[in-house]
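#struct-pred
JK: can someone run the complex with magnesium ion? inputs below
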Amino acid sequence: MSLPQRDISPLAGQLEQTLSAGCLPTEVSGWGSKLLQRLRQPVRVAVAGAAGSGKSALIDMLLGRVVIGRNGGGLLVDVCYGTEEMAEIETAAGKRLQMSGLLAQMELPQDACRVRQTLTDPRLRWHSYRELPLAGPQSAQQDMLQQAAGNADIFLWCSQEFTAGEQALWAAVPDSTKDHSFLVLTMADRLVMRGTLPALIETLEPVAAEEFLGVYPVAAIQGLTARTAGAPQDGLWRSSGGKQLSEDIQRQVDQGRASDVDQAELLIRQFGGTLPAETAPAVPAPAAAAAPQAASLAAALDQLQTGAEAMLAEAEAAGGPQAAPVLAQCMEMIRSLSQSLDAMPASAAVEAAREAAQDGEEMLMLCQLEQDEDAAVDAVTLLIQLKKELMVEPPG
Ligand SMILES: Nc1nc2c(ncn2[C@@H]2O[C@H](COP(=O)(O)OP(=O)(O)OP(=O)(O)O)[C@@H](O)[C@H]2O)c(=O)[nH]1
Ligand SMILES: [Mg+2]
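RT: done, structure tokens with the ligand placed:
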């Protein structure tokens, strides 16, 4: 797994300053506060599923060592970064105990109900794990899941078959969470032995395409073995399904971070003044490079048009746009347009285009506040309009 290359604390500091100085208009300050909170905490990965569905084994595999083991069955377990390897245990009687070491090796009190395990693994600075056991009547599970959805950025749903009951539970999870979630077919080695895996994947793929980023069969015990063996076992790591899942989770974590960083930069640039040095946009390239940049601007404008049209077509086919991804995509497009413009040599036309793009960014930001279908349509329309404006008077 890759580590994020950049320290985002200066950016978070700048955003905090912008917020506390009251620079943000009231309509965006709530968004700014949420953004700051997200920048200051790791991306939260919830690992949910029924009792014995293989959640702990999956987390241990992703961590690359036995941290939970078979201990703590049925407990809610958080695994996060800390300066020491220790566990804080909460009991049903409301007591809190601290024990040093790993949960897998601890003797837990009978009435333990919740554990917070800290590890010094630096990767946990960027994403933490929560084992979320689902048990009891369907309505209780529903409530638990709803609550968990508000406290997680990515879900890994662990199951051997993703039953109708589980599908009903998952259906109530907000789309914004589903867009970052994975269906993990746990204990895939057993499914392979029984010869049921291919048919199961075929049955679940259409559901998973709608409800998750994809279906991931994983043999966690083998995956963990591959990672803990004396010599690297790349083949086993790959064939266990662990490698693919782990890389795809990391990609989601990185994308989530990048999008938060983009939004924070946008807020600061528009309302808070200068960005910290590390996060400032790239310096404009020298004039000699103007010709390829003009070409890339034409390409960017074309992309703007085709991207916007594709989004509209997709939205129509789906019976209405999905606000969050459309808005995020629009923001991405307009930002890449702004970057192309920033890299062009100064001229009145470029300046006008930059202003138009900046206005566009500002409008898009307001669209993001609503996160509904209308906002998504407005955002796409805005991109098409912007493209038309720029084509009338092409910069450069
Ligand atoms: N063969 C095989 N067994 C597995 C795999 N993953 C987990 N198991 C076994 O399945 C049992 C349950 O796994 P856990 O990871 O403890 O399941 P859990 O969902 O955390 O269970 P609770 O915390 O009790 O809800 C254990 O005996 C594991 O060793 C796997 O990929 N392959
Ligand atoms: Mg467990």
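RT: quick notes.
The chain has a mean pLDDT of 83.
The chain has two domains: 41-240, 284-392.
JK: thanks, will look after standup
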